[in-house]
Write a structure and sequence with these properties.
CATH class: Mainly Beta
Oligomer: single chain
Order of helices and strands: EEEEEEEEEEEEEEEE
CATH topology: Jelly Rolls
Strand content: over 45%
Structural class: mainly beta
Shape: globular
Helix content: under 10%
Radius of gyration: 17 Å
Distance between the termini: 30 Å
Amino acid sequence: MKLRRFAIALLALTGSAIAETGLLYETDFEQFSIGDNQWAGNEGWFSNSEASSTAVQGIDDGIVLGLGKSAFLGFNEPATRWSYVARQLDHDPAAENSSRIDIDTLLGIQDSTNGRYDYFFVSIYNISGEFLAPIQFSNEQEAYGIWRDDGRTLTDTTVDFLTGEVQLLVLHIDPINNRWSAEFDGIPLFTDEIFTQTGKDITLGSLAYEWQTTDSSRTMSARFYRVTREVTP
């Protein structure tokens, strides 16, 4: 049964150095094969559902009309309540003299067909695999909206997303000063806030797209699993 879906239509990361701008990674997924479990295992992407027998993640050609191939996360019921697809980047801003990291993602969240409303994250981990910070998309009715998490405090941006619509998330990270800003379809989510309060080294190790399912049988925090799990290849 079709359940939840997180579509990533276009992804680009740029690292802005003092003297020049370098592209760290970008994809429009056009070189990926269409099918279940086809996002992970290509171009350095990995997942905890890479060999899953169900379509937790993959590549489709019909999610976003007119944009060609797209990646998805959150199609069928996963084996665990926390699923991710991530890519290792291993960018050290201090060593490479980077003053800013920009991450652009064109994404959309589709409502579940089983009455459950989950959490999706765009998360940053350092080179050691330690969690730094995410942007959280809560589709859960009591906490609906976009949230900022610095590893210690979860803050409501007061900006909502539209289900079934593709929208552009832009992150601007200042790793030297531990600050970041974000925009969603041109609307500021927050400006010059503390990036992470985890105390971990601020490097760009991996970028992860994560899905956390809700469980109506017990009370859970919006950050359940967030600070205890690490993405490692």
